[in-house]
Amino acid sequence: MKIGYACIPLGVKYKTNRGFMIKNFTKERLYEAIQQNLLDLLKILEYNVSKGIYLFRISSDIIPFGGHKINTYDWDAEFKDILIKIGEYIKNNNIRVSMHPGQYTIINSPDNSIVENSIREIEYHTLFLDSLELDYTHKVVLHIGGVYKDKSSAMERFCKNFNLLSQSSKKRLVIENDEKNFNIDDVLDISNRISIPAVFDILHHSINPTQDNTETILKKCLETCKKEDGPMKLHYSDQSPTKQKGAHSDYVSIQNFLEFYKIASKFDCDIMLETKDKDISAIKCINTIFPVKKSVMYDEWAKYKYVVMEKNYALYKKCSSIINSETNMLEFYKTIDYALSLLLNEGAVKNTLQHVWGYFKDRANDKEFVKFHQLLSTKEYTKAKAFLKRLAEKYNEQYLLNSYYFIINT
């Protein structure tokens, strides 16, 4: 089993979504953006492997305007060498990648122009994976689309328009249940009609459910996967407690995830986490499920410590002591999750800011000293934290920059 995340890691500064407005489109801008995106994609994959992450969703923005008529550039030929290099790295490290076209890619639309644009978008995603010279275990994930007042006709139209795709796109495409229009039974129906795999999204299912339990659903989804499709793909996320139904949580609750994992682990599957903190939750789940050295807990605590401190100082002290005990990774992460669930405490926030200021007090100039303490005195804590981040970058304080203190939005 592989566990992964989507698109842009938080733990490193690499990104693959560089772009520009269509009115500023030039081949020079396009070339530069593609080159930087591809170089960073390779770095992200290397980072992922260092963290035990072997499942990754590549951003649709990797090639700006990849599925748009304006982009007639033969990027797959121009960047063939780096694309093949990335593909070789993926294959040599047993990584599985995927892509997920956006919500406006709708091949069951009654509007032919929308269908035409959507097919172009799918073909772009397929071309990108093909250009990496990857087999068909590497997928393009798609939702069914709209109902348009007639669900049965909408499903028929999806199946009909599926046949307009290239053979490679047909082999790469997998379809996912959504939270509004098409539940997993609908997806399985279409999947069986056109012989492509179904992807089960647990959060969407909780909002748009069917009668079957999770294990029964996974059995049915598994039956849609052929050997050449690779392991069944699953999407996991928690509901955000503070946002509308269907909104992904800021982080994966390890306790909730393990309840799902208990069922999923009975099957040959890979789990894509869809959560705001991206690689951070993926690392948490991987470290909990797979055996790791005790040093990993120390490394993780170094990243989380100031996040916990600004929530509750007593809990920070507790964590500091339990990592030196026989506590396992599960108990460690359960404590971290509890800390993340707490509301910010003004006293703890201020105390943490002062603690982190200690890294700079002997290096900061007079202007920086005055600025920081001014922000503290006026209780502008968010600005004070942002100021400390700038100081960490200026003075190259790697311990802080490698931590989650400036990354996790608490």
Automatic annotation (TrEMBL):
UniProt entry keywords in alphabetical sequence: DNA damage, DNA excision, DNA repair, Endonuclease, Hydrolase, Nuclease
Domain of life: Bacteria
One Pfam family cited in the UniProt record for this chain: DUF1722
Domain DUF1722: 305-406
GO biological process: nucleotide-excision repair; response to UV
Keyword Magnesium: no
Coiled coil: none
Gene Ontology MF annotations: endonuclease activity; hydrolase activity
Protein name: UV-damage endonuclease
